[in-house]
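Let's sit down with a protein and look at its sequence and fold side by side. Please make up or recall a protein chain and show it to me in full. Label the sequence line and the structure token line clearly, so we can match residues to local backbone shapes. Go ahead whenever you are ready, and we will take it from there.
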Amino acid sequence: MKIAVVDDLREDADRLCGYIDRFSKENDIAMVTSVFYASFDFLEEYEGEYDIIFLDIEMPGSDGLETAREIRTRDEGAAIIFVTGMAKYAIHGYEVNAIDFMVKPVGYYNFSVKLEKALRFCRRHSTQYILVNDKEGLQRLSARDILYIEKEREYLIYHTRKGEFRNRGSIKTTKEKMGELPFAECISGCLVNLDYVSRIEKDAVMLEARTETRLPLSRRLKKQFSREYIKYMGGEF
């Protein structure tokens, strides 16, 4: 697990590094930490290699939000956690899909909870591929690119960011193969990638704006779907 700490205050950066080392030993998880005291230095070297990034919001030059926007142009899967002296700034975290924030001075218990959340995020977003044998031949689909999967007779239709793919199969078997990936059933025979859900309505699930997709949500599955979505999002930001 590769972690970056980006904070212009050496004392705060050292504190987080100490916490990371403690967490690593207590949980027997190998972690390699790199420290950057300026956002410019971090971005100059960054090539998408970090799993988790602790990012100070208030830094001279390019602040944390600007840095996070640049990170997202290069990497959608990094777990970003903002560290700030004032909680009001963290509300902008949704703009860059930050998973959480911490207010300075950070205590170890709060830190460990946030780091555990980041680890769950990383496990869910690790790249996993699904093989689909459609009319064009054998296709390898990244699970992260799948918007939703729907059943049509003996076929499954994979709606992805790169188009539609058909393959014989069952929703039950496919869901079992997904393991910990963030897919949930909105109606019988339709699995939705929770990463693309923007809103849950009374009887429908809305996917993020650019997909312009509205999927039905059954009364029977609404409670379970909502529970899985809230769990996936880690509660309110």
About this structure: The chain has a mean pLDDT of 86. The longest strand covers residues 146-152. The helical segments are 10-27, 39-45, 64-74, 108-125, 171-178, 219-233. The longest helix spans residues 10-27.
